[in-house]
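User: Hi! I have a protein structure encoded as tokens and I'd like to know what sequence might fold into it. I'm fairly new to this, so please keep things simple.
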């Protein structure tokens, strides 16, 4: 299952998606009502003016046979009229006056104008079929995903076991020890493609799921081939499993369904957009909301593997909670949550400072990446003359930053040749905050 190419999803999973979401051939097959699709099509015509069938197929992501049925329904209702052919290329459709009034009424109820949404009942099944927890990660998978990454002994095994458990993970330790980098790299263990809808509909509320800032679509030609040849519903997009990382900007309101009265659009919560993927809450404890409130939001989803969406007006909807949830913090976890909550998380992995051997491995890697020779004497000076002399801990991000700043100085001075002790000491003095001004 793991480490497959983006275009070659796990075969049994792909077949299950194909059985679950075949191309609809009629309104009934879409799981939507003729009134809902009629209102949506009218909104598209109101937005564009006049459209032919191919353009409607493109806009609503439905087959021509479905749209012909919707158009026949709208023509019978007096909302749509045929405006003739465009250069012999096919019939064009526009709204009648009755249709324009109906479109304005529909827009007053919902501002959504996009692809036809996927029914929430089918979406629940889709999430379960594509669960991120349906496989088993082995040590070879971990070594492949973290090839070239310097980690403390045993950390790969801890991460692999934690991921296999399906439980939430907390990564904690001092700043700069690689927590965010390692967390984001975990997505490499889940490289198969998934299908996700443009939007879903819950009763009469449409929530957009696809977000180009979160979801990475496959190559357009490749995606089209997958959808057409395999007969998968056009309302689904073929994407990589999502990786969503939030930091101090995260607020509780982003974890709930939001309605914008000005646009009359519903915004899906972040965890819903991260479904079937990886959701990293970075810098835990530095959000605008108290850490306890933020953590309490996850108690039910973590324990019951389901989330409850509140759409307002007494409307609620249950959705599978299918993602790998990672908390990352450089604060003491015991100051963020009590023992009862930490037990619910399950795995707490401590990232610490480096020993000299691991630091040297990273230093060598950075020298190779920057195309500069490795000088053991220079490294000894950094370790003994700077770190040891000033009592500074060895942090994984330091080699990249110190070598980069030393090269910045060289370029400024128009100098060439190997880096010198002076270059590294200059970088050191400018990298760390100097407190001697307090004396």
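Assistant: Happy to help. Inverse folding works backwards from shape to sequence: for each of the 439 positions I chose a residue that suits the local structure. Here it is:
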């Amino acid at each position: 299952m793991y480490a497959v190419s983006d275009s070659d999803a796990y075969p049994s999973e792909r077949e299950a998606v194909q059985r679950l979401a075949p191309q609809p051939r009629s309104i009934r097959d879409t799981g939507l009502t003729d009134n809902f699709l009629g209102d949506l099509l009218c909104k598209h015509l109101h937005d564009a003016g006049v459209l032919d069938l191919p353009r409607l197929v493109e806009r609503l992501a439905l087959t021509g046979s479905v749209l012909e049925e919707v158009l026949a329904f709208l023509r019978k209702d007096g909302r749509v009229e045929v405006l003739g052919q465009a250069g012999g290329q096919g019939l064009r459709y526009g709204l009648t006056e009755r249709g324009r009034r109906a479109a304005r009424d529909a827009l007053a109820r919902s501002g959504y104008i996009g692809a036809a949404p996927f029914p929430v009942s089918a979406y629940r099944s889709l999430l379960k079929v594509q669960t991120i927890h349906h496989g088993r990660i082995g040590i070879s998978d971990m070594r492949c995903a973290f090839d070239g990454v310097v980690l403390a002994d045993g950390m790969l095994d801890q991460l692999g076991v934690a991921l296999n458990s399906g439980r939430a993970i907390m990564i904690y330790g001092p700043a700069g020890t690689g927590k965010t980098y390692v967390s984001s790299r975990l997505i490499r263990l889940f490289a198969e493609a998934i299908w996700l809808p443009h939007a879903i509909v819950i009763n009469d509320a449409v929530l957009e799921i696809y977000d180009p800032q979160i979801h990475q679509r496959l190559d357009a030609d490749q995606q089209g081939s997958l959808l057409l040849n395999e007969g998968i519903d056009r309302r689904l997009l073929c994407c990589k499993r999502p990786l969503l990382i939030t930091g101090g900007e995260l607020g509780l309101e982003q974890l709930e369904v939001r309605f914008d009265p000005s646009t009359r659009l519903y915004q899906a919560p972040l965890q819903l957009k991260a479904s079937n993927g990886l959701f990293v809450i970075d810098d835990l404890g530095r959000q605008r909301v108290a850490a306890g409130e933020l953590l309490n939001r996850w108690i039910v989803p973590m324990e019951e593997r389901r989330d409850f969406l509140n759409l307002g007006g007494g409307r609620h909807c249950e959705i599978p909670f299918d993602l790998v949830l990672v908390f990352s913090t450089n604060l003491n976890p015991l100051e963020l949550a009590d023992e009862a909550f930490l037990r619910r998380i399950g795995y707490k992995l401590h990232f610490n400072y480096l020993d000299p051997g691991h630091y040297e491995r990273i230093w060598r890697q950075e020298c190779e990446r920057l195309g500069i020779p490795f000088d053991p004497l220079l490294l000894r000076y950094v370790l003994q003359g700077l770190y040891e002399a000033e009592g500074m801990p060895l942090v994984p991000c330091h080699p990249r930053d110190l070598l980069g700043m030393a090269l910045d100085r060289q370029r400024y001075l128009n100098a060439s040749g190997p880096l010198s002790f002076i270059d590294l000491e200059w970088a050191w003095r400018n990298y760390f905050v100097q407190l001697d001004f307090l004396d």
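A useful reference point when you look it over: Residues 21 and 233 are 5 Å apart (CA to CA). Feel free to ask if any position seems puzzling.
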